[in-house]
Amino acid sequence: MEKNKTGKYFKYAIGEIILVVIGILIALYLNNLNQQNTIQKQQENHLMLVKREMTSNINSLSVETAELTRIINATRDMLNVINSEVLLNDLTESNISMLLATNVSSDLFIQYENGALNQIIYSGGLKDIENDSIRGILASWESKINVVRLQEEQVNNVIEKIKNLMNKSGDIRIITEDLGLSKQFELDLSSTRGSNKNLIRLKEFENLLYELFLSGTALQEPTYSNFENEMHSLNELINQELSKK
Fold first, then answer.
1. CA triplet 23, 24, 29: central angle to 5 degrees?
2. Where are the domains of the chain?
3. Which residues 6+ apart lie within 8 Å of 109 measured at CB?
4. Which candidate, 178, 209, 203, places its Cα nearest to that of 73?
5. pLDDT 10s per residue in the chain (245 long)?
6. In the chain, which ranges are E strands?
7. Rg of the Cα trace of the chain?
8. DSSP character for 105?
9. Which of 54, 146, 213, 216 supports an S-S bond with 75, CB 3.0-4.6 Å?
10. Shortest CA distance to 223 belongs to which of 71, 114, 64, 102?
């Protein structure tokens, strides 16, 4: 009888162990499933944040591209005028002021947002991105913006040189008067109106214009153009990945 009772207890114990093992396996499965769902949600959130930033950056790039186009066109016009004594003589002081102002009106700098992307990278969130192509692009994205910033800096350095030459050899007051800024700031008009034709006749000025034109066109094409295409391509990959969820 003791043997029979022991056998029953043994079978009962084995059954209990099996139930415990099954319970552990189910718990592990559910925990793994929850982790996968959490990672999946994190990935979707990361991708949506990056897409939102890229869309904003595309819009910012469009603004800077338009500004760059105005600068390039004004620089081209100025170079063509300098190359022709007839055009230079016929050019009014007001025209000169407008061209000069367009050349140096603003620095080129994309208002680039990368807060979400940096947070993803530095928090280790890249490992949550399943798509190898997207993960690889995001990992190397900082180098892409660095290339853009370097080219922008080259253009802005030339603009700064032109400003310095204008301050040294030009007449800033004429430009402010022609642009209507003197009236806006309630400044008296110059009693003896000068000219900036001597400025634009300087070889140093012409050389700087060529430098601005060449660096500007290089920034416009291929730097800005490629960067815009890369952002559109990244957004397209993200859209394709999100559509699978």
1. 100
2. 2-243
3. 64, 152, 156
4. 209
5. 455 566 667 777 787 888 888 888 887 877 777 777 777 888 899 999 999 999 999 999 999 999 999 999 999 999 999 989 888 888 899 999 998 998 887 788 998 998 889 988 888 888 888 899 999 999 999 999 999 999 999 999 999 999 999 999 999 989 989 988 888 878 888 777 788 999 999 999 999 999 999 999 999 999 999 999 999 999 999 999 998 86
6. none
7. 33
8. S
9. 213
10. 64
Q: CA 158 to CA 65: how far, in whole Å?
A: 17
What span, in angstroms and rounded, lies between the C-alpha atoms of 114 and 149?
14
Q: Are 200 and 82 in contact (CB under 8 A)?
A: yes
DSSP summary character for residue 224? I
Q: List, as one string, the DSSP characters of 161-219.
A: HHHHHHHHHS-HHHHHHHTTHHHHTTPPPPSS---SHHHHH-HHHHHHHHHHHHHHHHI
What single-letter amino acid sits at 215?
A: S
Instruction: Answer yes or no: are the C-beta atoms of 93 and 178 closer than 8 Å.
Output: yes
Q: Do 104 and 159 touch, CB atoms closer than 8 A?
A: yes
pLDDT of residue 190: 77
